[in-house]
Amino acid sequence: MPMVGESVTEGTVLRWLKAEGDRIARDEPLVEVETEKVDVEIPSPWAGVLQRIVAREGDTVPVGEPLAYIEVEVVVGASASGGLRPLQEAVVPVGAPPAQPERPASGEGPAGRYSPAVLSLAREHGIDLSQVKGTGIEGRITRKDVLAFVAARGAAPAAPPSPAGAPRPAALGAQMGARPVEVLRLTPTRRTIAERMSRSAQTVPHAWMAVEADVTPLARWRQQIKDDFRQREGADLTFLAFAINAVVGALKEHPILNSSWSDDGIVLKSEINIGVAVATEEGLIVPVIHGADGLSIAALAKKLSDLGERARARKLTIQDVQGGTFTIDNTGAFGSIMSVPIINYPQAAILTLEAVVPRPVVIDDAIAIRHLVNLCISFDHRILDGAQAGAFMVSVKAKMEAFGPDTELY
Amino acid sequence: MAVKQYIEAIREALDEEMGVDPRVLVMGEDVQEGGVFRATEGLLEKYGPGRVLDTPLAESSIVGVAIGAAFNGMRPVAEIQFADFIHPAMNQIISEAARIRYRSNGAFGCPIVVRAPFGGGIHGGLHHSQSVEALFFHVPGLKIVVPSTPADAKGLLRAAIRDDDPVLYFEHKRAYRLLKDEVPEGDYTVPIGRAQVRREGDDVTVFTYGLMVQETLEAAQRLSEEDGIEACVVDLRSLSPLDRDAVLEGARRTGKVLIVHEDNLTGGVGAEVAAIIAQDAFESLDGPIMRLAAPDVPAFPYAAPLEEFCLPNAEKIGDAIRRLAAY
Which of B183, B211, B239 is the endpoint of a domain? Predict the structure, then answer.
């Protein structure tokens, strides 16, 4: 179908003026074609014999598609253009683009050179690009290679729930939007907390469990003696002091909980230094009770009181917040009955003391009011498994349940 | 919705706007007869010679008269028979129409539309194949639209006629009867200045306009089926004002950008798109910004193989996307 007008893209065969087998001269009228703009008589582009008509009357044919084949006279010595030739405009596959043009950018070897997109993503997800396999030209790492790496890392069974897979919080400007928002300045404490928590959550595979302890004897006894204690010692006799004592005892039995992870091996700590999370106006601070295994319950209570006061008054020394080997968080103080704490990196575990609440429980087919408390632990699953954590927690629970009038405070 | 040809959509937009607004008139060479491409067919019978004006073969006069009529309260749609012939009207378009808003400190607009069929692939040769948008793209004060579908052809022409400032409306002459697609019923417009994502994809983003949108979509479809490469295709459709947000968003989506136009390469629309991305989406780039355009020759040759060599098509676009995806 020849091009018969500049906006014409197809034509309909009205009538063939020649039949198959007819001999035709060059430029002799061959077929009538109807288009949107005009009806035209198409002359034969070659002399020869109309061999085969492929577009029947009434057929609509796009410009450039064959209408019929014409067998042309072959002149001896002529080029191989003889034989059957489709009657169509000279549409020849040409203009194929230069086979493989040079690489779009020059001088960019794959080693150590990355696109801005790849660098941004690597920064965002904390990726060492030497670990990423490049699938681009000459092994170049592409944006998609990085995304695939991030996705694979997030899906790996041993990896923590991948914060790297989560979208990074957008830059401040991008979050501002049309409506005015208030931006809280980041204090140094806030930044430190953010950095440590992210690091722990991103690198440590956290596992979690909780046990329930019946601390009725302790609760009743404490109720009786706490006012005296306060008067005598100038400090509150808190459940936390007992919990630390219980934890210290259990750590001695299960030293694997008092350790930290390194690629060379698990580092067991000889000291037991208990960090205690303290909420301050600035944010979370974790002062440390050094040598907690050498302190009585009364001494722990006084130490807690002292550290808490100094933390809130911002009077802690560097030594006060360093060297912890295990952390306890008194989440019960906020009324919590269940928490999933983030490990204080690089320690092996963190335990929470939840709120002590009176509950009806079944004892020997009778219902009694008992004081129950949940103890929750998050532990580094690289260092230990559920069985060891469970044994530790059973020990803590037993010690908590054993506290009572017979317990030595000093 | 009914399926309509691209040129029917243009004709309907003219007809309907003339029907609702007595200030709208059409003028140009042989427009009373329907024009060389039949775009104005039937308008003379409906609206009479007072609103369908045949003009001399003098583009400067066609646009100049349109500008004068616009200043006197009309909304003329001037037809340039082929965009290739628009150059005698350059002074009227640039020095008068484009400047008056600025020159009058915002007091006067020049609500004209200049319709001009452009583009190759139709064996039009030197004087019937040119793309001229880049010449006007540089000029502040002009709006330029290039519809790539029948629906956009109608919606953009309506928006152009209703615009209070001059709009150049470039319609692809090969699209006239090639493109048939659904056109919404009723009074709708397509906003000038807004690009449209025609296809989603996360490997490469292609920015294009005009009939190259169709070639790019064809290439993208083939690549999806044969190579598993997914190209995002953004139809710029409004060159001035350019939808910068859509350009940056599209570039950031994949980090690999190809710009396709059938206008020749140097100083084309693609150069500006590339510059915007290089400056404001640099951090998202994952490869060199690439352009595929006609070579820097005055116009497409008449000979079919040579024309095909010059004109970007689905195959060449596909090759370029494949190269960029692999980068």
Answer: B183
- B259-316, pLDDT tens digit by residue? 999 999 999 999 999 999 999 999 999 999 999 999 999 889 999 999 999 999 999 9
- Residues of chain A with Cβ-Cβ distance to B282 below 8 Å are 116
Residue ranges making up the domain that contains B250? 196-326
Compute the distance between CA of residue A54 and CA of residue A47 in angstroms, rounded to an integer. Answer: 18
Tokens of A265: 């091996």
Half-sphere exposure of B52 toward its Cβ, with a 13 Å CA cutoff? Answer: 22
Chain A residues with CB-CB distance to B under 8 A? 3, 6-10, 36-37, 89-92, 94-97, 101, 103-105, 115-118, 120, 136-137, 140, 142-144
Predicted confidence band at A93 (pLDDT cuts at 50, 70, 90)? Answer: very low
- Residues of chain B neighbouring A136 (CB-CB closer than 8 A): 326-327
Closest CB to A104: pick one of B37, B202, B323.
B323
Q: What is the CATH number of the domain that holds B176?
A: 3.40.50.970
Give the pTM: 0.59
Torsion angle of C-alpha atoms B150, B155, B159, B161, degrees rounded to 10: 50
Distance CA B79, CA B55 (A): 10
Instruction: Residue window 67-106, chain B: list those with CB within 8 Å of chain A.
Output: none
The residue from A264, A329, A385, A406 that is catalytic is A385
First-to-last C-alpha distance (Å) of chain A: 107
- Asked if the structure places residue B90 within a domain, the reply is yes
ipTM of the complex: 0.71
Q: What is the pLDDT of residues B161-177, one digit of tens each?
A: 999 999 999 999 999 99
Domains of chain A in sequence order: 10-86 (2.40.50.100), 117-154 (4.10.320.10), 201-402 (3.30.559.10)
